[in-house]
Amino acid sequence: MRLRQKAAAELVGTAFLVATVIGSGIAASRLSAGNVGLQLLESSVATGAVLVALILALHPVSASFNPVVTVLERVLGTISTRTAAWLVVAQVAGGLLGAVVANLMFDLPAVTVSQHTRSGSGLWLGEVVATLGLVVVVFGTLRGADDSRVAYAVGGYIAAAYWFTSSTSFANPAVTVARTVTDTFAGIAPSSVPGFVLAQLLGGALGLGAVALLHPVRRIAPPARKAPS
Questions:
Q1: Cα–Cα distance between 34 and 36 in angstroms, integer?
Q2: Other Cβ atoms closer than 10 A to 22
Q3: Which one, out of 20, 114, 206, 218, has a CA that is 20 to 30 A from the CA of 226?
Q4: Gene3D superfamilies per the record (predicted)?
Q5: Model pTM?
Q6: How many helices (H) and strands (E) in the chain?
Q7: What is the pLDDT of residues 83-100, one digit of tens each?
Q8: Is there a contact between 213 and 141 (Cβ–Cβ < 8 Å)?
Q9: What digits encode the pLDDT tens for the residues 51-60?
């Protein structure tokens, strides 16, 4: 598969993912004003569903949509450093594009810097847990007997992690950066981004360790040579 195809898939997939996160948040806040719990439910269902659809559609090309996952793929040796770098650039660019489009779809300025501060040890721990779990789900499913189930596993996990993590599970540096340019339900203030991204990287590293422990790669031993007669 050519690098430009992989990068295009990551850009398109991340753009649609972020557009869904932000757009569903805006729609939910307008349709269910004053009911934050219902707003979160609406956004989590939309995000989980779009992840299933996007991964099913783009997995044959590239469907990480997440710099943490891409970096870990490089660590595991499944992609090259050059490929990983371009995919991360595409993910960040796609995320920003998706945020701008979501703002415009709801008649908001294309870019509005978020004022929603998200900071504190509880939220950072939530991001560590969210990203750790995501990595285990992604790579655990891919190393299982049927890797075609990864779309459903990831979509289901993210929908659930919206609720069981204190941070509502950003679990993605590209999505985190993109959410700084919308001052809406899903936004995050730029000053809060470094703490979130560091927590996500830590969660990714811990997740990689968990995957190595739970799903070690089994090397097939070469057939034994017969002794000469």
A1: 6
A2: 30
A3: 218
A4: Glycerol uptake facilitator protein
A5: 0.92
A6: 8, 0
A7: 999 999 999 999 999 999
A8: no
A9: 999 999 999 9
